[in-house]
Amino acid sequence: MSGTSRIEAVVFDWGGTLTAWHDVDFHAESLALAEAVRHAHDHGPGSPGALAAHDAAAARLHAAGGVVWGRSRDEQRSATVADLFTEAGLDHDPALLDAYYDFWEPHTLTDPEVGPLWEWLRSQGIAVGVLSNTIWPREWHRGFFARDGVLDLLDGDVYSSELPWTKPSPHAFRAAMDAVGATDPARCVYVGDRLFDDVWGSQQAGMRAVHVPHSTIPAEQVGHTEGTPDAVVRTLGELRDVVARWA
Ligand SMILES: [Mg+2]
């Protein structure tokens, strides 16, 4: 830390903020996830019985996803991939999640502006963090950052799959501050694409909020309140001017 900056840390949301927002086919997602159900191929691969069982498992996982994300929205309770299978009443083998991972992988690419932005923030003595609402394990997220050459620029990263809470709980934001070594929320900035989870949530935690307004948030994921951002940026590169002004 330089000691001169009035901003201690900038913490980022992940999906739709550090990555481009993509509208995802949730039916296809559920079918890929159902590949990990244990004994899914007991009927004989490709047999009518196996196909029906796969479709049924996918439908249950899709419904379970609604329950799990509803709990996040309404109660800020977190979940893991394993919790999703439990909610669906299905037994799964984590070693069989390849199809699900491959389904999502094209949607995980880091915005090319992230690297230069994070380098600049660190050059200003400002810590860089990530706080994501996610059911995925830490290794997946860190793998995406490593693949795209930005992992070494991160001072701290927090994934709700490892916490009891999700955003917008103030506890989640406090965990992110702790992870980057920040102590004063008024000197922290949060950047995200959601007006409830990210903007309202971080402001409730005492931070300043920057909105990246490119995502089409599904209606069932919109929360009870929308925060008014302290700043709006159309590209991550624009964040430099915003932070410089506040610093
Ligand atoms: Mg997001």
Strand order of the largest sheet: 3-2-1-4-5-6
Task: State the CATH class of the largest domain.
Answer: Alpha Beta
pLDDT under 50 segments (min length 5)? none
Query: Which cofactor or ligand species appear?
Result: magnesium ion
Strand content: 5-15%
Number of domains: 2
What is the global morphology?
A: elongated
| Average pLDDT | 94
Number of helices: 9
Distance between the termini: 13 Å
Give the biggest sheet.
6 strands, parallel
Task: Work out the radius of gyration.
Answer: 19 Å
CATH architecture assignment of the largest domain: 3-Layer(aba) Sandwich
User: What is the tally of beta strands?
Assistant: 6
Polypeptide structure, described:
With 247 residues, this protein is of the alpha/beta class. It has helices at residues 26-33, 48-75, 81-88, 98-104, 114-123, 138-147, 170-180, 195-204, 239-246, and strands at 9-12, 127-132, 156-159, 188-192, 208-211, 231-232. Strands 3-2-1-4-5-6 form a six-stranded parallel sheet, sandwiched between helices. Helix 8 links the parallel strand 4 (188-192) and strand 5. Helix 1 runs antiparallel to helix 4 (98-104). The longest helix has 28 residues, at 48-75. The protein is elongated, with a radius of gyration of 19 Å. The structure holds magnesium ion (MG). The site of magnesium ion (MG) has 7 residues, from loops.
